[in-house]
Specification:
Structural class: alpha+beta
Shape: globular
Strand content: 25-35%
Radius of gyration: 19 Å
Distance between the termini: 6 Å
Helix content: 10-25%
């Protein structure tokens, strides 16, 4: 399955990128170049010969996904740019940065530093197109000295770093931004030498078109990004919540919020198929789903809904995390691989 006819010739010239998921922290397959290894939970068995990333979010009951490996058919090189550790080939790059969080009044500067270093890393390679980012930091809705939340400070800092980098892509990456219980700002990301295809959700206002004020910068991400590799098509789905237009729906009802979030993802897949000639199956091609949960008490209800809405074989992981709005109780992200 291809992302679009326009990407057919391109997909023949670049190596493949395949993602596998596992129910235990297994080691990568020997002899297969690994771009990155991601672990959720017990880090035993990590391979220090590849970029190994531990996501410091508590795993909740109902999870059956504990490790994830990104394989490529091309030899890769490891590198470091300031605080960014990365692996790359001429066509793809996976990077990771973790910075200790300072006092409440310095978070904007910290986030700007993180993205300044990320864009600096990309500029040192051919892979200047961000496809997917994951961002975690504590106190996401806490207000700082400037009376704006850490999330808004993060959005502002990311915008400033992007503008300063000179990388002028108008295709924003798919993104997740979640509040963690860890005392650091952690970002890991995937980039390529060619851009993906941004996909927006007709049920939602594009995040970069959200109403803004003097103290609120727009969130620069796409609802989803399609990317054709040589033998696989990936659809990177951003963190998706119970939002229609730009407003939260079903306040105080976690079940309704979860169903609305799932509806948004299904709509996004249909829209990608209609607009870009993909043939993604909303269930069969779903490689995994990651569910971020604000309150532990909601886990049983969430698992009941997931069991009803998803095939029992779909890998999923539930993680304790806070959303960027106080009235959001759950958020989900997904990766489709066809």
């Amino acid at each position: 399955m291809t992302a679009s006819d326009s990407n057919t010739s391109l997909s023949r010239t670049i190596p493949d990128l395949k993602v596998t998921v596992h129910e235990s922290p297994v080691l990568p397959v020997a002899g297969h170049p690994v771009l990155a290894c991601l672990y959720f939970g017990n880090p035993a068995g990590r391979d220090e010969d590849c970029l190994s990333i531990q996501t410091h979010l508590d795993i909740l009951p109902g999870s059956n996904l504990f490790s994830q490996f990104w394989y490529t058919g091309q030899d890769i090189t490891q590198g470091q740019h300031e605080s960014v550790w990365y692996t790359y080939s001429p066509h793809m790059l996976f990077g990771h940065i973790r910075l200790p969080c300072p006092g409440p009044g310095s978070f904007r500067q910290l986030a700007r530093q993180a993205y300044r270093e990320i864009y600096g890393c990309l500029q040192g390679t051919a892979c200047t197109h961000l496809l997917r980012t994951w961002n975690y930091f504590p106190g996401i809705t806490h207000q700082g000295e400037d009376r704006t939340s850490r999330y808004n400070s993060f959005c502002s800092a990311r915008l400033q770093a992007m503008q300063a980098s000179g990388i002028g892509s108008r295709i924003y990456p798919a993104a997740t931004v979640i509040g963690s219980q860890h005392d650091s700002l952690q970002v890991y990301f995937l980039a390529s030498d060619t851009p993906g295809i941004a996909v927006e959700n007709p049920r939602q206002t594009s995040a970069y078109d959200y109403p803004v004020t003097d103290t609120h910068a727009p969130p620069l991400f796409s609802r989803g990004v399609l990317k054709a590799w040589s033998r696989h098509t990936h659809f990177y789905v951003s963190g998706t919540a119970s939002i229609i237009g730009h407003e939260t729906q079903h306040v105080d009802d976690v079940g309704a919020q979860l169903n609305e979030s799932l509806n948004n993802i299904e709509t996004l897949v249909v829209h990608a198929n209609d607009r870009h000639h993909t043939q993604l199956n909303a269930q069969d091609d779903l490689l995994y789903m990651k569910v971020y949960v604000r309150h532990h008490k909601d886990v049983p209800h969430i698992n009941t809904i997931l069991a009803a809405r998803l095939p029992g074989t779909t890998p999923r992981i539930l993680l304790q995390g806070d959303m960027c709005r106080d009235d959001l109780l759950v958020e989900i992200e997904a990766l489709y691989q066809a």
